[in-house]
Q: What sequence folds into this?
């Protein structure tokens, strides 16, 4: 029975012309931002992801295409690119869901310098995490005691809501304020600061607040919510930033900042 | 006041003035719609507002809130769109605020 099914499927495939997909990939013209889209034609397969398409182009059509990926299953956040104008994880974007009139246009993430083709330099993005003081500061420096963390406390729930950020840069690429104000710390760094401010094991919540209460910090957010709309992990950085605004307000009123 | 406190206070003041402006704008618009029903004349307006403590307080508060709210908002726009920073940015915002206060209170003074 299985053999018959396989045979009929094979006959069916042979009788129909191969479906193809039009793909345009951003190709750098030397170093820097200059470049143009280059068109390719790729076999269209079932359950094909955009990362599969880019990989096909690189392996079968044009080995000079540069892009970045690692896990291929939505766990690392390395493969984020702009697909038909929207920032996405390409490994979690099915061609059938994102193609527009049979076309897939793949570009590097916005708001970051392009190294080559689809690979961006994320140095500035991660430097802003440092500027936002988005590093954990342990209360108990040598961790000699287990911390007692109440999982049902409001603080822990707030921290948990934002803790799954992979640092993929999709929210940063989606953010219009980052585009206008290159100094703005961005949704990811601020979301991380929010998780730390709410972490009872962290020893310097006011230090985190001081770092994000600048004119390039949480108050620069316009609440457009593009970060929340495009976050592949379904996090809500806008809510985290609003929470930081409230915490900063309270800290200023109490004279702690 | 350090930069951090200044930014936070400006943020707070802008939100508070927005909360004040909201109902005042509604009162202003509702009064306008009501007042023009039987035609509009300077004498009618002055008859309603002159010597009125209530209208003096409403428009006096309106001017303060609008001056602060507008100046802080324009300061933010200049920072983002024109990349202005530091003393220039703050000076322009202060001048705008003082200008709105002067013109606004001149108008309120004429009304009440």
A:
């Amino acid at each position: 029975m299985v053999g018959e099914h396989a045979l009929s499927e094979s006959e069916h495939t042979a009788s129909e012309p191969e479906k193809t997909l039009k793909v345009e990939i951003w190709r750098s013209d030397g170093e820097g931002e200059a470049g143009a889209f280059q068109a390719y034609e790729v076999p269209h397969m079932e359950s094909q992801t955009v990362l599969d398409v880019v990989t096909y182009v690189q392996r079968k059509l044009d080995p000079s295409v540069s892009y970045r990926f690692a896990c291929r299953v939505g766990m690392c956040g390395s493969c984020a690119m702009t697909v038909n104008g929207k920032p996405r994880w390409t490994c979690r974007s099915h061609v059938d869901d994102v193609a527009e009139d049979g076309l897939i246009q793949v570009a590097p993430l916005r708001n970051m310098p392009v190294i080559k083709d689809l690979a961006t330099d994320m140095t500035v993005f991660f430097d802003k995490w440092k500027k936002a003081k988005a590093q954990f500061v342990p209360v108990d420096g040598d961790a000699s005691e287990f911390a007692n963390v109440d999982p049902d406390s409001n603080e822990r729930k707030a921290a948990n809501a934002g803790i799954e950020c992979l640092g993929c840069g999709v929210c940063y690429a989606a953010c219009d304020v980052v585009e206008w104000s290159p100094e703005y710390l961005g949704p990811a760094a601020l979301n991380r600061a929010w998780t730390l401010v709410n972490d009872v094991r962290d020893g310097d919540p006011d230090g985190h607040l001081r770092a994000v209460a600048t004119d390039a910090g949480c108050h620069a957010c316009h609440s457009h919510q593009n970060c929340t709309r495009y976050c592949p992990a379904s996090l809500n950085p806008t809510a985290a930033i609003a929470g930081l605004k409230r915490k900063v307000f309270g800290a200023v009123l109490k004279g702690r900042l | 006041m350090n930069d951090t406190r200044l930014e936070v206070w400006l943020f707070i003041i802008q939100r508070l003035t927005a909360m004040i402006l909201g109902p005042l704008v509604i009162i202003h618009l509702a009064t306008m719609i009501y007042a023009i029903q039987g035609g509009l004349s300077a004498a009618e307006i002055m008859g309603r507002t002159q010597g009125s403590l209530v209208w003096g307080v409403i428009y006096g508060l309106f001017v303060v809130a609008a001056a602060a709210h507008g100046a802080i908002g324009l300061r933010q726009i200049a920072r983002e769109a024109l990349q202005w920073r530091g003393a220039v940015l703050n000076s322009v915002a202060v001048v705008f605020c003082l200008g709105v206060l002067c013109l606004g209170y001149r108008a309120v003074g004429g009304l009440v």
